[in-house]
């Protein structure tokens, strides 16, 4: 025995299970399922875009002020040796910078100048990002 789908009568019109007039309801149900997924995907894409932007800003800073990017890799408190002595001298000179009473060593001037460049790049990059994001927000 074979079963066939029979058209049903509704208000003078026949409807079969594959009726295209049921498509809007199916699309609404599908949209109700996809909207939260798309929203969370949009949030993930936004977060990744901000992470990429931070990486680009750090790369630009590292290219313009390389010393400042590498200095945090030094140990803060080496136990002994020449590195410990040099870092202690740097700390003492920086504590009294620029009023050391004597000529400032060129290495210390280079460090301070590099950190000044690092912060200037940070300020310019942050300002540019702020202006671009504000313009994009206003345009949308």
Structure description:
The longest helix has 42 residues, at 23-64. The chain is 68% helix and 4% strand. The protein has a domain at 57-139. A hairpin with a 2-residue loop joins strand 1 and strand 2. Strands 1-2 form a two-stranded antiparallel ribbon. The protein is mainly alpha-helical and 140 residues long. It has four helices and two strands, in the order ββαααα.
What's the helix count?
Answer: 4
Order of helices and strands: EEHHHH
Oligomer: single chain
End-to-end Cα distance = 62 Å
State the low-pLDDT regions, or none.
none
**Rg, Å, rounded:** 33 Å
Largest sheet: 2 strands, antiparallel
Strand order of the largest sheet: 1-2
Total strands: 2
CA-based shape: elongated
- Strand fraction: under 5%
Helix content: 55-70%
Q: Would you tell me the overall average pLDDT?
A: 79
Q: Can you describe this structure in just a few lines?
A:
By secondary structure, the chain is mainly α. The protein has helices at residues 23-64, 66-70, 82-95, 106-139; strands at 8-10, 13-15.
What's the SSE blueprint?
Layout (H helix, E strand, L loop, with lengths): L7 E3 L2 E3 L7 H42 L1 H5 L11 H14 L10 H34 L1
Antiparallel strand pairs: 1-2
Helix pairs in contact: 1-4
